[in-house]
Description:
Layout: E1 2-8, H1 12-20, H2 25-33, E2 36-45, E3 48-55, E4 64-77, E5 80-87, E6 102-104, E7 106-119, E8 122-134
Parallel strand pairs: 4-6
Antiparallel strand pairs: 1-8, 2-3, 3-4, 4-5, 5-7, 7-8
Amino acid sequence: TxxxxxxxxxxxxxxxxxxxxxxxxxxxxxxxxxxxxMKLVKKVNDHSFYYLHRxxxxxxxxxxxxxxxxxxxxxxxxxxxxxxxxxxxxLDEEHPxxxxxxxxxxxxxxxxxxxxxxxxxxxxxxVKVISRVxxxxxx
Length: 139
């Protein structure tokens, strides 16, 4: 479990959009550079999508880990936006799990974006992240 908050010189909507756009070329490149093996993004509606991704933890003898999340975002008001990643089984029928080749991991992450007053014309956003990750299996 981890928690962080920081102020970023960027507009709240731009930050949230960057997080939400999992299929961009830049996002895909970074994903693979950081041990990502496979990812699938399936839109549910304008405020949610399913995010299935598998990672190689780069530890000898460890199987790959797979996360299956539903990602939901909501704009609370003009100055606050929340995004949540939560475990889901919604993709199990369409994409059956394969325990021989990977271990099902678990995660819950909440991101809160809060618009702050601009400083010398530069937008400011307070970002709070609370995350719990269980890589499961023998560690």
